[in-house]
Structure formats: C-alpha cells, structure tokens
Amino acid sequence: MDRKxxxxxxxxxxxxxxxxxxxxxxxxxxxxxxxxxxxxELRQLAEIDLLPIANxxxxxxxxxxxxxxxxxxxxxxxxxxxxxxxxxxDTMSYTAAALALMIQELPKPIVLTGAQIPLDDIGTDGHxxxxxxxxxxxxxxxxxLVVFGTQVISGPRAxxxxxxxxxxxxxxxxxPVAEIGLSIKWNGHPRARSRKKPLLQPSLDPNVAMCxxxxxxxxxxxxxxxxxxxxxxxxxxxxxxxxSAGMSLIxxxxxxxxxxxxxxxxxxxxxGSTQMELYHVGRAxxxxxxxxxxDMTPEAxxxxxMWILGQTKDLxxxxxxxxxxxxxxxxxxx
Length: 334
Known about the structure:
By secondary structure, this protein is α/β, with parallel strands linked by helices.
C-alpha cells in the first residue's frame, strides 16, 4: 500500500483559525490544534503535522513574520512532501509573494489558504479550502501557490479582491495555475517537483513605504516618505502616470532617487501594466529616476523592493533586480 504524503500545516492565524467571541467579534483560537479537529478529513488525505508560527489577525501582520515562516519551511523541507500555510486573507498576497522570493528553486509545493467564514460558522469555506490545499500540497507541483475558492493561484499573482465573494483571492494578469471543480484541472504545465536544493534568501529591509497618487497629492508627501524610508512604491494612475504639472511630484521623485532612495511606480488598476514611456506624465517620472513595476501587483512590488533592499542598496542594482522576474512576479520576463 502506498504511503500517504506528509504535509506540514503552519498556522499564522486569520479567520480560518478564529472563533466568535461573546460580543460577536472574531478572535483567534487559543489552541491552534482546533484547526485539525474541525477538519478530520485532512488525515484521510495525508499524514498531517501542525506547526504554529503565529496566532494573529492578518491585519496585524508585520514583515518580520516572513523570514521566520520561510526559515521554518526551509528547515523542514526534507521531511515533508508539501506545506500548507493557514493565513488571514487581508495580507495573504503579501506573504505569498514574500515566500516565493525568499525560497527559490522550490522542489516541493508551498500552499497558502484561509477562509472568509470561520470553521464553526454555518456555510464556512474553510473546510473546502483546507482540503483542497492539502490536495495541492500533495500534488506534483513545486511553486508557492494560493488555494482559495475554485482557483489555484501563483503566489506573486494573488490579490484579495473581495470582502463578499467566496472567491476572495484572485489571480492578477494571469490565468490561475489550476481550476478546482470535481477535480483539479491544471492550466498548462506548472513547475514540477524536483530534487533541487531550495535557495533560502530571507534578508529583508521592511523600511519601505507604499503610497497612492491622488488628485491633490502634494510633493511633500513623497519628500517625507523619502526622508523616512529606504524605498517607496508609488501607485500611479493608469499605465503609471504621475502628476507633472501644478503640484508636480516629479522634482520630489528626482530628489529621492538622487539620494539613493528608489521609487518604484506600479498601477492602481487591477488589470494591466505600467507603460510609462507612452505619456509625458509617465516619461517625466522615468526621466526623474522612477522604476516601472510593469505588471506586478502593488503587493508583490512592495515585498520585492523590501527583499531587494535586504540584499543591496545600490540604486543601479535595485533597478536591475526590480525589472527581472525571479518567480513569475513579472509576466513574460525571466
């Protein structure tokens, strides 16, 4: 008889590990083992071990959790066939991008999942999400993935797009890696398991800010962020457009980059990519030293800039690395 796959479930908190308090609010379980007791079917699919990493609402997540999580998985990589990270939905996309960048050359899958409705509530989606996550963690793939609702999503492509739909997490600017129905239907050929030795790169500089451009945004905002942070992700309009007249942000971008503070420009739009060379309002920012994020999500761009600044502060190296796709965070580039 074939042995069951070994899957390690790492818990960080989130709705999937929460219960209702007497006042109606959701609070984390005191004992994380409740997760497995509420979903006994998991042990039919795999030999499950549980490793608590944190027990927080994911809105309270801080970047210091990512290296801890990456090291915990990397250290146990030889002992398990796959990994599932139970996580809150609000910041799941940030953690998925961080794990993808911090553990490269993966030989086995790392799957993040969560829930919109707690396990003890009627209609919970946590059961199916956990069951499908274990199935994916035991499959022949080797990527950081998010399993949620009916989609299997590349980690750096994941984004929370709804507080209402059960499909709260969706894939941005790329088809899902797989669709979940009566079975798991893979789209194309995801990266397969291998005997490669995973590369752990957990260094991180969390002192990075993110700010959306908005009508009336003053250059002093950029100046302050540049004076207090090591890097900035600026969410521009459309294809990466930045105000260049009136209260122009261009001089502030130029001053920041001249001081060695990288300014990465992504788009506020859900679908599409920066094309900053098309309009003067984008070209002016490029000429001032801004780095285009292309089709990275804002979440992936922020985490990637933190990760790069953890390795180098040289602006030329930062620009080169931001425009290289390491784990599929930029589509069609390697």
